[in-house]
Amino acid sequence: MPFQQNWTWRALVAVAAAGTLYAGSAAFTPAAWAHVHASSDNAVRGGTALVTFQVPNESDKGAATTTLTIVLPDVASARTETMPGWTAKLDRDAASGTVHSVTWTAVAGGGIPVDQFALFRLSVQLPNTDTVSFPATQTYADGSVVKWDQPPLPGGGEPEHPVPMLTLATGPATAHEHHHASAPTEHGGQADNAARLLGGAAMIVAAVGICLVLIRRRT
């Protein structure tokens, strides 16, 4: 009996450890996933890049996202990717030839549903600066509007509605998105993978502990 109790205790410890690992893995999932992100694999100062905007639906009322406007730094060239279910319009200054912004509008009855996200891609000529901001305005079907235009807080903290940003490379080297911020496709993906690995390890530890208990009881 004492022997079985000892193994039972070990199994309980294993299960507790599994729970701790799982909770810890959840803590690694960045809250920033709920924000609008900008990312690019070829963001070079003064060069043309394909910038992807990841837009999640954060509505707590079940409303779909129906409009997205991205303000551009008066770029000389911009083109949108064909996106089924959406129309895109560039706000172009005919006199200077620069593009001020781009607005995507969902077709009637369309948009980004709750708990989903969409990717909006734009080929754009980037400015010759270290970083570039893309203030975004997200409009929902119920008329609510969220502006993603707040710069990083002093000390590097994240505001409630951070502006999507890119850090630009000075040469052909690959640059990654700084969303306020860091690329969701890279840093967010790594955090998500780490969470899954820790969660999987936790379940394995728990399963092994339970199996050992069952084996010892039978023997």
Order of helices and strands: HEEEEEEEEEEEEH
The number of distinct β-strands equals 12
Low-confidence stretches: 11-32, 173-195
CATH superfamily of the largest domain: Uncharacterised protein YcnI-like PF07987, DUF1775
| Category by helix and strand content | alpha+beta
The biggest sheet, with number of strands, parallel, antiparallel or mixed sense and barrel status, is: 5 strands, antiparallel
| N-to-C span | 12 Å
CATH architecture of the largest domain: Sandwich
Q: What general outline do the C-alpha atoms trace? A: globular
Task: Please bin the fraction of helical residues.
Answer: 25-40%
Rg calculated over all Cα atoms? 24 Å
Question: Can you give the mean pLDDT?
Answer: 77
Strand order of the largest sheet: 5-6-3-9-10
CATH class of the largest domain, anyone? Mainly Beta
In terms of DSSP E residues, the strand content is 25-35%
CATH fold type of the largest domain: Immunoglobulin-like
Query: What is the number of domains?
Result: 2
- Tally of helical runs: 2
Verbal overview:
The chain is of the alpha+beta class. It has 2 helices and 12 strands; from the N terminus they run αββββββββββββα. The longest helix has 35 residues, at 184-218. It is 28% helix and 31% strand. β9 and β10 form a beta hairpin. The chain has 2 domains: 2-28 and 193-218; 36-180, Sandwich (Immunoglobulin-like). The chain is globular. α1 runs antiparallel to α2 (184-218).
Write the layout of secondary structure elements.
Elements: H1 2-27, E1 37-39, E2 48-56, E3 65-75, E4 78-80, E5 86-92, E6 99-106, E7 117-125, E8 131-133, E9 136-140, E10 145-148, E11 165-167, E12 177-178, H2 184-218
Antiparallel strand pairs: 1-2, 2-7, 3-6, 3-9, 4-7, 5-6, 8-11, 9-10, 11-12
Helix pairs in contact: 1-2
